[in-house]
Amino acid sequence: MLNLNRLDLVSLRLFVAVVDAGSLTAGAERFGISLAAASKRIAELEHHCGVALLQRSPRGVAATASGQVLHRHAIDLVAQLERLALAVEDFRQGTGGHLRLAANPSALGGFLPAQLALYAARYPAVHIDLEDLLSEDTVRAVAGGSVELGVVGENTPCEGLETFVCEVDELVLLLPPGHPLAAGASAAVPFVQALDHDFVCLQRQASLTRKISGAAEAVGRVLRLRIQVRSFDVMARMVAAGLGLAILPRAGAVIYASALGLEVAPLAGLDVRRRLLLAMRSRAALSPAAQGLVELLQARIGAAAAR
Hints:
The protein has helices at 9-21, 24-31, 35-49, 65-93, 105-108, 112-122, 135-144, 191-194, 207-218, 232-240, 250-260, 288-306, and strands at residues 54-57, 60-63, 98-103, 127-132, 149-153, 162-175, 189-190, 199-202, 225-229, 246-249, 263-268, 273-280. The strands form three sheets. Strands 3, 4, 5, 6, 7, 10, 11 and 12 form an eight-stranded mixed beta sheet that branches. It has a two-stranded antiparallel sheet with strand order 1-2. The chain has a two-stranded parallel sheet with strand order 8-9. It is α/β, with parallel strands linked by helices. Helix 1 crosses helix 3 (35-49).
């Protein structure tokens, strides 16, 4: 039987990082230790478990069947330890808990700031930890327990997580003033016509970029990605500089259009509904701080559906 006293929590956390990265080198870098130290810790962990935990190849590493079992349990253990550390810190500082949340650019550039302001007013003693991540990274953060809640695009795989729709917005076209497609911006611009121009987008793996690229492929076209950036703010500034067009949710587009003197036009020939999901591992296991945000967002989306 495995001697639990020999299990090293540091090595377990390293093991999770290595499996998630698919590379011993990347896992060591993510964990902040040398490759030699990481190799030694993993070897000692395999020795204590009595089985091989990783399959090594020139392309990286992957968990063995036994390693997959350990990975699942280690994730739960690491998440519980992080919640414990935050709870102890709350006691020490006298705060009312931690809201640990990750969100994609669509949420951060749209509905989420206003909702977090409402949340902060309702729960002033709660400390908010917010991470700016792409949807796929947000899913990993939720699954790994580093955050309790995550806002992601609806086209992001969320296997094993509980989700519900927390936002429905409309995708629109953001254009520089004087652009040929900006003439009569109140009229819908055909998506295929917009595809004749260069675009400024988020990174290729972003859920919004994947949605737009997929829509272009569906009509036999290729999205002309001229510049890829990490935020809506930079997207809008690139559009203002005349470097391309952008498609983003209306809630964010109108803000940037007003600030930078840009044009906003509706789109035709594209599914313009942009649905965002709130993801969590288990609603029943959420902290009171996280449960408060879930209730606030559910009430909001329910009120919107009733109108």
